[in-house]
Amino acid sequence: MTQEIHGTVADGFEAVREEFAAFVAGERADYEGQLCAYVHGRKVVDLWAGTAADALYGVFSSTKGAAYLVVALLVQDGTLELDRKVTYYWPEFAAEGKGALTVRDLLAHRAGVVGTDTGFTLAELADDRQLAERLADQRPFWRPGTAFGYHALVVGALAGEVVRRATGRTLQEVYQERIRTPYGLDFHLGLPAPEEPRFRGTQPMAPTPEQQAVLDATPTGRHSLASIAFNGNAAEPTDLVSLPNMPLIRAKGPASVGGVASARGLAGMYAAAISEVGEQPALLKPDTVAEFGQFHSVGYDLVARAHRSFGLGFQMTADTWYPFLGAGTIGHGGAGGSQAFADPWSGLAYGYTRRRFPFPGGAAPENGRLALAVHTAALAL
Fold it and tell me: What transmembrane ranges does the database entry give (predicted)?
């Protein structure tokens, strides 16, 4: 039975609803997902299928976008300086040859501390301060600044410790006070207990036999760089799919992977980043958006073992995923399928969430067709 599509689109965005409906019609009968978009601060798409309109999902690494937005605000304020050494704010980070690394290189995944030799416990993964303490003492896995690799589970803690040392506030507190509350965003770094009933647990991947064969053909050694980055070398290796389903992760909201959001929350955050929304001014000035959306790390990612590109933290979404987007688009996808970005050229802010973990992981493949439909409609306005 085909899922019913709920929600609204603005005039001129009817093709987005059609594209979403066509995608959902080809999915499993239990599909749940949400799609939302803004153009120049005005909501133009608000669609969902298979669940309540106000459901919340674990958004995995889409969380990182909120963390980088906090850092961008503090740089814009003058509280943080990108070309200062990390040790200016966090002296203990100098251990094991990391003393020359700048904040700029830390954000661009060039630190080399993607994990620790023995991995982390769940309690440590949930607590950015504990992660930072462990990482400060860790020997880097490559010479800092000379290469890059995705710091999947830890970059939010690294950035968060710099924020905490500079402001006396946690990254999560700054996010709450300066971003989530003023804009009323349905995107939480630390889910309040009264919101728990809205959370929909992540469902495991359901690969076809052909997809399972691909997964089986690409094993990862326990002490490979990729395994270390995803905590596969811990005494109790992390099951990435189940992370958002852990109450401790949702409650603490670690800044790399612990966010809980709706598509409205994701799109609303990026709309606020680049546009006036309601009575609120844009969070970032155009020069700040341009700085954080400039290529910083491009080429072979030592963790992903593939071509990747990063700005200052943000994924270079137009280069790696969606070439139709404007240069300097800032955003981040998540392992559970979520995707979110802001394209300053078109004024488009996009957010997508889904419940079931996609094959092969990362931002779900349907984002390509959905984002193209939204972008095409936005340009036609």
Answer: none
